[in-house]
């Protein structure tokens, strides 16, 4: 039981917070248990600052016990039996034993409290999430595992306490949670869990977009998202959440490097993850997975036997917006992912390394704050197995990044603005505010992108020529 020993050590380190908490509850004659994901993560050596507890004390009693002890206190979950506090760096949630289903909880705030720890554990989603550690005045005191979650944890298997049908019937979101744990923990689904998802996957449609999205975020940002996405697709769950992903299976990859666009996209996701600098990058990961979702809808068979996907980046960006909005993603995330999908072919537009200053400026300008991610996405998008071609493409990416760095050293590439502002334009042309000023501004910005920074005299000269050449100003 090396894992259990690891958990014991992890929990010893928390004695400062566990022991006083255990003392508070014990002296009032109540039981207190660390429970759920906190125990699972302690055993796996990945426990963070969030600690979940369960107790026989009713929420009002918990509130009374914690009021003088905690640094901060919130009771937004109190109608569901949960009291939240902060103590030092720890965010602590204490929930009274529950005996109702999770689906009831999400639909109906009428709570049914349980009498024993076991009442509470059997209603949980998976056995690995249904272990508890009794907390007393000495801190962690006893390991409680009536559903043998430890065996499942050692075997790396996601299984349910009762039958999967019962667990998923209680809360269909758990089907997606199961797949999310593949990504976070690298575990496998027990065959009966897999089977139940294939049979019940349409029930996920009962779940609100917000809850689905929260799980998807954890899934895509986990350590094993490819395996999780594949499980989501193979069990049929993806069909009800993001049908565009299995939709990519229908379309052959035109480079014939992969079986289909779906396999190519998984490889791009993997390569994008390898290029991340630190924390998982949600936007980059979604963009990598979804960059080609416009392909099935734009596929055309060409006369010579080839296939084309004209404008798949435009169609794909639109599809991303629609799907991510439906999943209630924040506006900024939707537009960043959609913009990356829209821009992912920009690199190829310039051919083999023929990057003029103007092309570099336009690329940087169009990418805006997404530049770093766009560079990663275009690199990741190279999945050819032809070594010579891959090397040539890598050189092109290196070349582009060097060209950007060189030009940045010479001029401000970050926020390209026209060399004259709106006021200067109005003064020079003698026009009032109106659409003409906007047109002139855009003309000067194009010029700035083409030619780089201009002196005030050059900019004024260019603006005068533009003005004189307008049909209404001639003759
Ligand atoms: N639909 C759900 C949601 C949660 N739980 C239980 O509630 C605990 C806490 O839920 P949550 O915080 O959502 O998940 P964690 O497992 O803690 O994982 P994470 O903190 O990574 O989200 C879970 O461990 C599980 O025991 C459940 O049984 N059914």
Summary keywords:
475 residues, alpha+beta, seven-stranded mixed sheet, two-stranded parallel sheet, 25 helices, elongated, binds cytidine-5'-triphosphate
Question: Could you give a quick summary of the protein structure above?
Answer:
The protein has 475 residues and is of the alpha+beta class.
**Gross geometry:** elongated
Uncertain segments are: none
Q: Which ligands, by name, code or SMILES, are bound?
A: cytidine-5'-triphosphate
| Structural class by SSE content | alpha+beta
Cofactor: Mg(2+)
Keywords: Coiled coil, Magnesium, Metal-binding, Nucleotide-binding, Nucleotidyltransferase, Transferase, tRNA processing
Coiled coil: 383-417
Domain HD: 261-377
3D structure, described in words:
The structure is a single chain. The protein has helices at 2-12, 15-27, 37-43, 59-67, 102-107, 117-122, 149-155, 164-170, 173-185, 191-200, 209-220, 225-234, 238-241, 244-247, 261-274, 282-290, 295-298, 312-326, 331-343, 357-367, 371-380, 387-410, 422-429, 435-451, 456-469; strands at residues 32-35, 50-55, 72-74, 82-87, 90-96, 132-136, 139-144, 157-158, 188-189, 300-301, 307-308. Helix 9 (173-185) runs parallel beside helix 11 (209-220) and helix 9 (173-185) runs antiparallel to helix 12. The strands form 3 sheets. Strands 3-4-5-2-1-6-7 form a 7-stranded mixed beta sheet. It has a two-stranded parallel ribbon with strand order 8-9. It has a two-stranded antiparallel ribbon with strand order 10-11. The mean pLDDT is 91. By secondary structure, the chain is α+β, with helices and mostly antiparallel strands. A hairpin with a 5-residue loop joins strand 10 and strand 11 (307-308). The chain has 25 helices and 11 strands. The N and C termini lie far apart (93 Å). Helix content is 54%, strand content 9%. The structure holds cytidine-5'-triphosphate. Residues 36-37, 52, 102, 124-125, 129, 171, 173-174, 177 line the site of cytidine-5'-triphosphate. Cytidine-5'-triphosphate (CTP) is lined by residues 36-37, 52, 102, 124-125, 129, 171, 173-174, 177. Its cofactor is Mg(2+). Pfam families: HD, PolyA_pol, PolyA_pol_RNAbd.
